[in-house]
Design goal:
single chain, about 700 residues, 5 domains, five-stranded antiparallel beta sheet
């Protein structure tokens, strides 16, 4: 059966004899009105085919051939099933059956075709039936469009969406995607789970419902909502903040604009539950703080121990050169790898008191540095800076440039560089506001780097060292003053005593040779005798003080009745009190045990105390000497009705050469000091209780002879 292969070689689509029901009325003569329709059929952008009701090809256009890869004559020789992918044939036949039966007017389906080269393509197939004027089916018309690229794009998009969904669901963050109006476009299950919000609230797309559900769970809902509104107003901005939930959890919230061609089209919200991380961080911070506090406590203990040991070392002797040298040795290696201490002895001249190095092999280098002349040190040298300004120097990192700037000569710099200094501290020793020396600490092989805390500790050591130097100098000055005073005492006690004895003997002879009736002459001689006796007592006081200081005050202690000690003293001093119209009274417990005492020395104490009371008690006053038993001791008291002693003077009254601020300057201020020395030599105590305007009471104790025996 012959079939036309083109419209150019036939005036009909197909011979009417070839197709049942195909009549001449369907033939289109060339050049007639239907020729345009045939041209359109042939040049259509989609594939078009005419088929008999039993699916035999009538005609196909050029596009149909291009889609399937077959020539026109090749298609006309094949069956429809030959071009259809095997798996899709049953469905295609079923649809054709339903069209022929009138169940469907047409059908549209996406199915697979097999091209001539064996490749599989996807086509969009539309099949309809052409009927006669009487409604009888005549033939089928099939339209195909190659949608392979579209299906591949859809497949790729589907895969991308699937991957995106899998990514969203696998992430640990809650994800919410919205458009510019806030409408929810997508979310993952994690978002619903972490917020404990039903998924259907997100699925409905209404962001306001989701926001309201979230606000109920927040500690600070206003801040949450303010940030949402702000970002919706500025779709191009990103954001990060932290949310605190009422149940104790903590979320980090991230928001990034979603862009297409750099134009914002929506927003991605990301929520991360950082509760465990935050708690771990807090625990780590707490642990770090605890460790830092423990380290600080340990360092404080070490510093305290070092300072305590330094105080012990520095207080061991008044020879400050020895103690400061010991301090230098203590500082290495506790505070540095090597240390040096210098004192200013003369203007612009340093004296090295001590140095120490942790490496004995480098000690010689350190000693060589000590020999550098002052002129070798530049104004940048830390020792010069400290002595000039009085301010400490902390050089955390000692560099070659620092060494070059500190020493004038290259040879000296090489010696210092051989010590390999790494970090340096230099602090002044200051007394009376003026630097008198400097303590230098340096690290080397240990690699330790000094910090402000180290500077503080070094400054503390320097303050202690400065106190030692100052005390040593004061002690030296006190020794010189003591020696000078002792020299004076020696002159007074020895060189003046012989002439004074001569005067006393002469006065005695004059009294013996002067008749009683010559009253005026005897009175004048008596004045000279009393003056000589007073001077003799002063000399004796000076000698007693010297004996006390040297520890050579002798005490011949024997059992003595307290009443006898008091009465003998009162009898001796009663004329003195009477001369000032002062009543001298006693109050003695007759049951007192004897005391272990040197009678002469105790009477000297009583005489000094009563004499002192007479001197300060106004006329018509009263002085009472008493004694009573207190535990295993006897307490003596001298009570006066004088003006009393101001509180600020009480701590000083037993000092040597101390005198009250009064116009009466009789004596040299040794009476109370001697009394204190004698009482303490008896293993007793002496003190005063006084109230201004009410008088004073001097007490002293002596051990009971019966208790000792």
């Amino acid at each position: 059966m012959a079939r036309p292969t083109s419209f150019e070689d036939s005036t009909m689509l197909a011979p009417s004899s070839a197709v049942p029901g195909w009549t001449a009325e369907y033939a289109v003569p060339l050049g007639g009105p239907g020729h345009l329709l045939l041209a359109t059929f042939e040049q259509a952008a989609i594939g078009i085919a005419h088929l008999t009701l039993d699916q035999q090809w009538i005609s196909v256009n050029q596009r149909y051939c291009e889609i399937t890869g077959y020539a026109r004559e090749e298609i006309l020789e094949k069956k429809v099933a030959d071009l259809t992918y095997p798996d899709d044939v049953p469905a295609s036949l079923e649809f054709i059956r339903r069209i022929r039966c009138g169940e469907l007017p047409e059908y549209k389906i996406e199915e697979r075709f097999l091209r001539k080269d064996g490749t599989v393509i996807w086509v969009n197939l539309t099949v309809s039936i052409v009927r006669s004027a009487t409604g009888d089916p005549l033939y089928l018309v099939a339209f195909i469009e190659d949608i392979t690229d579209r299906r591949e794009a859809q497949s790729q998009a589907s895969r991308s969406l699937s991957l995106l969904r899998a990514t969203l669901e696998s992430t640990a963050d809650g994800i919410l995607v919205v458009d510019l109006n806030g409408k929810i476009l997508s979310f993952n299950q994690k978002m619903a789970d972490m917020w404990e919000i039903p998924p259907e609230i997100f699925a409905c797309g209404d962001d306001q419902r989701a926001i309201n559900a979230a606000l109920d769970k927040l500690v600070y809902p206003e801040e949450f909502l303010t940030k949402v509104i702000e970002l919706y107003r500025h779709p191009g901005e990103a954001s990060y903040d932290v949310l605190e939930l009422k149940d104790g959890r903590t979320f980090e919230r991230y928001s990034q604009p979603q862009r297409i061609d750099d134009v914002p089209v929506g927003r991605v919200w990301s929520f991360r539950d950082v509760t465990a991380r935050r708690r771990a961080e807090e625990q780590a911070h707490a642990l770090a703080r605890e460790q830092a506090a423990r380290a600080e406590a340990e360092n404080s203990q070490k510093r305290a121990a070092l300072l305590a040991e330094a105080s012990r070392v520095l207080s061991a002797s008044f020879d400050y050169q020895t103690t400061l040298a010991a301090l230098v040795n203590l500082a290495v290696p506790a505070l540095g790898d090597y240390c040096a201490l210098d004192i200013v002895e003369e203007e612009d001249k340093f004296e090295r008191i001590g140095e120490a190095h942790v490496d004995p092999a480098k000690s010689q280098l350190l000693r060589e540095v000590a020999t550098f002349p002052r002129s070798a040190l530049t104004a940048r040298h830390p020792l010069v800076r400290v002595m000039t300004t009085g301010e400490p120097v902390l050089e955390a990192d000692v560099t070659p440039a620092f060494i070059r700037a500190s020493f004038a000569e290259a040879g000296q710099r090489r010696i210092v560089e051989a010590l390999e200094p790494r970090s340096l501290i230099c602090v002044p020793l200051v007394t009376s506001g003026k630097p008198i020396g400097a303590l230098t600490l340096v690290t080397s092989g240990s690699g330790r780097r000094y910090e402000p805390a180290d500077l503080s500790l070094a400054a503390d050591l320097a303050r202690r060292a400065a106190v030692v130097v100052e005390h040593a100098r004061l002690f030296h000055e006190a020794q010189q003053a003591t020696r000078a005073r002792d020299d004076v005492l020696a002159v007074v006690a020895h060189d003046l005593r012989n002439p004074l004895n001569t005067v006393s003997m002469a006065v005695t002879l004059m009294l013996e040779s002067t008749p009683p009736e010559r009253v005026q002459e005897r009175r004048q001689v008596e004045i000279v005798r009393r003056a000589a006796d007073r001077m003799n007592r002063m000399i004796q006081d000076l000698l007693d003080v010297k004996r006390m200081e040297s520890g050579r005050l002798t005490i011949d202690a024997r059992p003595e009745p307290p009443s006898a000690l008091i009465n003998d003293t009162i009898d001796m001093l009663r004329p003195l009190a009477a001369g000032s119209t002062i009543r001298l009274e006693t109050s003695i417990d007759e049951r007192l045990p004897p005391v272990l005492a040197d009678a002469a020395r105790v009477q000297q104490v009583l005489s000094n105390l009563v004499g002192n009371a007479v001197k300060f008690t106004p006329r018509n006053g009263r002085i009472t000497v008493c004694a009573e038993r207190i535990d295993g001791e006897v307490r003596f008291g001298v009570i006066d009705t004088g003006p009393g002693i101001p509180p600020e003077q009480v701590p000083h009254i037993f000092g040597r050469f101390w005198q009250a601020k009064t116009s009466d300057r009789r004596g040299i201020g040794l009476g109370l000091a001697i009394a204190k020395g004698i009482v303490e030599a008896h293993n007793g105590r002496i003190w005063v209780e006084s109230h201004v305007g009410l008088g004073s009471t001097f007490y002293f104790t002596l051990p009971s002879a019966t208790e000792i025996s």
